[in-house]
Amino acid sequence: MSKRRILAIFIAFVITLAASAMWSASTTERDGDPDANVLEDSGSTAGNSASEKKGGNKVARIFAAPFKAFGRLFSHKDRLQRMSEKDTEKFESVGVSRVDDSRTVEPAKLEAANSAKEHLSNGRSYLLNGQLNEAIAELSTAASLDPRLTEAHNLLGVAYDKKGLAERAKDSYERAVKVEPADAQALNNLGFSLYQNGNYRAAVDRLKRAAKLAPTDDRILNNLGLALCRLGKFDEAYKNFARAAGPYTGNLNTARMLERFGRDDDAIKYYEAARQIDPNSTLALKRLGELYKRVGRTDPAQATDNPLIGVTGAVAAR
User: Fold this and answer.
1) Predicted pLDDT of residue 36
2) Is the Cα torsion angle 60, 63, 68, 73 positive or negative in sign?
3) Are 136 and 117 within 8 A, CB to CB?
4) N-term to C-term CA, the chain
5) What is the Cα 245 distance to its own chain's centre?
6) DSSP code of residue 103
7) What is the pLDDT of residue 310?
8) Which of 72, 130, 164, 239 qualifies as a FRET site for 31, CA 20 to 30 Å off?
């Protein structure tokens, strides 16, 4: 069998695997708190401070090297070129490999006699790897060896949260805050945990304390906004959403939360405020059109439909 035929089979195999993996990723159900997801749809950060390492598209990175090589070999100034034997050898040297980072490195096995900070470091690595049982074991050991190790309690709470053990998570966050009352991230995590358990007043109290300690932390401000929405304090919630991401996004986030609670007339006011800031906001225009129709105000609905058609048409023409 010729080298070119082998190469063609290899490329087809890689494309098939990539397509299958991407389809699987796109059909996975969305995790996380529903209210926090609403904010994240507008580009805002919310939820607990999970100490997760940010990365790119996991699926795409697995197959990136072969496709980049393929593009370099076959393209030259936007024209397809004939592939030489030398190019074939170059392509054949490119393997399909996963890009490793700290999440894929197996932490070293430790003995119970190791220090609390060593167990903390191992627990953090397990948590980043998604190995929750191992993380809980290591972080529990670290916290028992040094009960004043705030980060051990805080990360243990994160691990319990990911396991769906909300009460244990809250207990760990409370221990972290008791050890270090001025730890903004521990207060944020405790506040968000209380929020998820429906204890909104206590959540607001902890999150306000966290916001005083970290007044520019977007995640804390957005969590505070969510908790205030649950108490019906939407004007105050808007102020925190706006502090986190500016007036435009603040109006959108408040409007979307009001819409979730069935308060369409109030949501319209905030969507209109967002439209005043950005007259071409497709999200604001679309939601206004639907809400005006829902509340039976057809004239304003027509007024929002027309500019929306103009915006979407201009985007399509680009």
Assistant:
1) 86
2) negative
3) no
4) 46
5) 15
6) G
7) 45
8) 239
Instruction: For residue 184, give every residue at least 6 positions away whose Cβ sits within 8 Å of its Cβ, in sequence order, or none.
Output: 210, 213, 214, 217, 220
Q: Which residues 6+ apart lie within 8 Å of 205 measured at CB?
A: 191
Mean pLDDT by 10 residues, the chain (318 residues): 63 49 42 81 80 41 39 39 41 37 53 78 92 93 92 94 91 94 95 93 97 96 96 96 95 95 94 94 90 82 53 39
Q: Where are the chain's structural domains? A: 57-98, 246-318
pLDDT of residue 191: 95
Residue keyed to tokens 């639907």: 290
Q: Which CATH number is 246-318's, of 1.10.357.10, 1.25.40.10, 3.30.365.10, 3.10.105.10?
A: 1.25.40.10
Strand partners for 76: 79
Distance between CA 119 and CA 15 in Å, rounded?
A: 42
Structure tokens, 266:
């109030």
